[in-house]
Design a protein that fits this description.
binds zinc ion; alpha/beta; seven-stranded mixed β-sheet; 18% helix; Metallo-beta-lactamase, Chain A; 22% strand
Amino acid sequence: MGVTGRESNTPTLSEKGRAFVGGFVAPVGRSIVAAVRPDDLAFGPDAFTVPSGRGPVRVTWLGTAGFSVEHEGFVVLVDPYVTRASFARCLRGGIASDEALVARHVPRAHAIVAGHTHFDHALDIPAIARATGATVYGSRSCERLCRASGVAADRVVDVESRLAREPFRAEVGPFELRFVPSAHSAFALGRVPFPGDIADCAELPMGPMAYRCGAVFSVDIRVAGRRVYHLGSADLVDAKVEPGVDLLLCCVAGWTTTARFPTRVMRAVAPGAVLLSHWDNFFSPLAAGAKVLPAMQMPRLVDALTSEDKALRVGTVPILGGVSL
Ligand SMILES: [Zn+2]
């Protein structure tokens, strides 16, 4: 992109006609360094080609690391979190899913993948599974959370135990889901926040800090000749990834504290395109749109990714927006 500068909050309507530069507001046309906001990177509606003769693979961003991938009427969700409890609400502990938001934004699902069990990835999974009948794929922590939350045992798959024995793949309609051991970025003073497993869900609803990380997975989604790879935290186990994906759903939060993250992700995953996610303030409701978290350094990440592959396309979509491929 060749652009430097630090993103700030997305301007409000009253700030139209001005640009944020390095945290300061400067009149448009007088800024020396152009600011890059996530909106400036948005993929257009026809950014990707849908081959003739088949329906689209529709990838929709649900905010944070949450995605819906839909093809031929089948829906796979990954890390869906639409409740987005406020910070004040989280401080009070005991957060529950907003079932009205779940019904509105994720009314259908055949499979739900939990990349890890921090609350901003896993909180809504039991409620969505109960409402849709979808099968949940996740760690032992995820299994405990779901079982304690009333999800039927035959609707929860312990990917962690299966992967300990052999590669694990699941077929869901036209989808093949390949689960890949992954890692969580250690962005909290060099440590993974809330480490360990969810061991006891006796006191539901749990507070945010009780949602321990658990084992971490990526999912390599193969459908209609395409590969969509979900990286829900900004780290990876390089050697476990099969390179050459069409679209990488890439977590931004925490990337600056992961050693050589852009180089490693480009070499291990070798994506044709990158859709940036988990850069939004998830304490702010979906209806307010995506507001960028502090210190994401997205322009620097875009520069670092594209310096590895000049042909790489890197972009964003609006919250509840998406791309078809
Ligand atoms: Zn996390």
